[in-house]
TrEMBL record:
Domain MHD: 171-447
Any one GO biological process: intracellular protein transport
Gene3D superfamilies listed in its UniProt record: 3.30.450.60, Mu homology domain, subdomain B
Gene Ontology cellular-component terms listed: clathrin adaptor complex; endomembrane system
Keywords: Membrane, Protein transport, Transport
InterPro entries noted in UniProt: Adaptor_comp_med_subunit, AP2_Mu_C_sf, AP_mu_sigma_su, Clathrin_mu, Clathrin_mu_CS, Longin-like_dom_sf, MHD
Protein name per the record: AP-1 complex subunit mu-1
Family: Belongs to the adaptor complexes medium subunit family.
Subcellular location: Endomembrane system
Annotated organism of origin: Mycena venus
Length: 461
């Protein structure tokens, strides 16, 4: 059950609130509502996403946002958060039915009706009536409705709110980056369990006047709609989303991406491909334990992409036991590489095939390779002491191996920019620049590495 429902403006100031229960403590209930906005700002400053439900000092906060308003529910006990969030969305829908437009002004003009609705819709914190037809039978008072202005589409007026008139550049250029992030999950048997490609087309425009740009991709749906045959590989994009400057009607008709761009940087479009992705960087990790006193990690990295491409800043993170100590590393050498300790506590070893860093606070070591050419493979050996004796079952419970990399001038999906045309009434010539980048996604992980004596496992990244 909810203890309090409130509607706040964008600054967190309370417009209206209704307290259903007196279980929020001895303090004034408005103090808990005023604490909502500072808590959100604190999470945003720390770089954390603000969840729809969170707790602070024993109080549960559940909220949604509509236009420039926040709808907030508070509770001090164990509450059904999902049901409460659904109730808040239903509350918004009913207010829109009554007032046509739910804004701060409509809240101030109709607070009497809102209080009546809150009393009918919820009793002692429990949702009761959420059907607008039934509420109309109980609450017949006329409301003050905001006049909603109906604006014609921009295609009819020619208005371009995202770009100013009179922009001038001495050199007209447009830069286009196609960035693809690969998410990959590999199980302990070395099989790809899940893979997807998340792509974004970024643009940076330094163009004079009001130019119109037309972008053509090797889109499979475009070739099918026009009856043309693709010369090379055609891709089938999913979940395509465009910047609001793109003319969606034209894209739906003939798959042409036509738009008047904003000035400067912006994301033109995003897309997703759920096809099976061939691992670009293959990692094999083998663990060998010696009488419970030390453990040896043998790690191999193989570049499974074309030889003319190179992966930059490859990072392979391998987790180790939390009580491991005295690290020693070697990379394709017969001697143990010297270990250095700095004041910040990070232990590292410099080798010909990159740098190995022991990071105790992360519970593992990072093998960094500045540049990995296609078709190449590197090996490294790490040894740790184990002061604590553990059984084999506990030793195998470790975090997954993760990999980071970036491959310029390469796309794993095969997407290509077929043309990028710039048309402006003054007739100037613009220089288009196109760049492709493939990198790891947020979820690029391998399950537990192979231990010697177990069935052989090939792990992939």
């Amino acid at each position: 059950m909810a203890s309090l429902i409130a509607i706040l403006d964008v600054k967190g100031k309370t417009l209206i609130q209704r307290c259903y229960r007196d279980d929020l403590g001895d303090n004034d209930t408005s103090a808990y509502v005023e604490r909502f906005m500072p808590l959100m700002m604190e999470m945003e400053e720390e770089g954390q996403p603000v969840p729809p439900c969170f707790s602070s000092q024993g109080i549960n906060y559940m909220h949604i946002r509509h236009s420039n308003l926040y709808l907030l529910a508070l509770s001090s006990g164990n509450i059904n958060a999902g049901e409460t969030i659904v109730f808040l969305h239903q509350f918004v829908r009913i207010l829109v039915e009554y007032f046509k437009a739910l804004e701060e002004e409509s809240i101030r003009d109709n607070f009497v009706i809102i209080y009546e609705l809150m009393d009918e819709m919820m009793d002692f914190g429990y949702p009761q009536v959420t059907e607008v037809k039934m509420l109309h039978e109980f609450i017949t008072q006329e409301s003050n409705q905001l006049a909603v202005q109906i604006r014609p589409p921009t295609e009819m007026t020619g208005a371009v709110s995202w770009r100013q008139e009179g922009i001038r550049y001495k050199k007209n250029e447009v830069f286009l980056d196609v960035v693809e992030s690969v998410n990959l999950l590999v199980n302990a048997a070395g099989d790809v369990v899940r893979s997807e490609i998340l792509g974004v087309v970024k643009m940076r425009c330094y163009l004079s006047g009001m130019p119109e740009l037309r972008l053509g991709l090797n889109d499979k749906a475009m070739f099918e709609s026009t009856g043309r045959t693709a010369r090379g590989k055609a891709i089938e994009m999913e979940d395509v989303q465009f910047h609001h400057c793109v003319r969606l009607s034209r894209f739906e008709n003939d798959r042409t991406i036509s738009f008047i761009p904003p000035d400067g940087d912006f994301d033109l479009m995003t897309y997703r491909l759920s096809t099976i992705v061939k691992p670009l960087v293959w990692v094999e990790a083998e663990i060998e334990r010696h009488s419970g006193t030390r453990v040896v990690y043998m790690v191999k990295v193989i570049a499974q992409f074309k030889r003319r491409s190179k992966a930059n800043n490859v990072e392979v993170f391998v987790p180790v036991d939390d009580d491991a100590d005295t690290p020693e590393f070697r990379a394709r050498t017969t001697r143990i590489c010297p270990v250095h300790i700095f004041t910040e506590g990070i232990i590292f070893s410099q080798a010909a095939n990159g740098k190995v860093t022991y990071v105790p606070d992360r519970g593992g070591f990072v093998w960094t390779i500045k540049q990995l050419a296609g078709g190449k493979e590197f090996m490294m050996r790490a040894q740790f002491g184990l002061p604590t004796v553990r059984n084999e079952q506990d030793a195998r419970k470790r975090a997954p191996v993760t990999v980071k990399y970036e491959i310029p001038y390469f796309t794993v999906s095969g997407i290509q920019v077929r043309y990028l045309k710039v048309v402006e009434k003054s007739g100037y010539q613009a220089l288009p620049w196109v760049r492709y980048i493939t990198q790891n996604g947020d979820d690029y992980s391998l399950r537990t590495a192979h231990e010697k004596g177990s069935p052989p496992i090939r792990q992939t990244a």
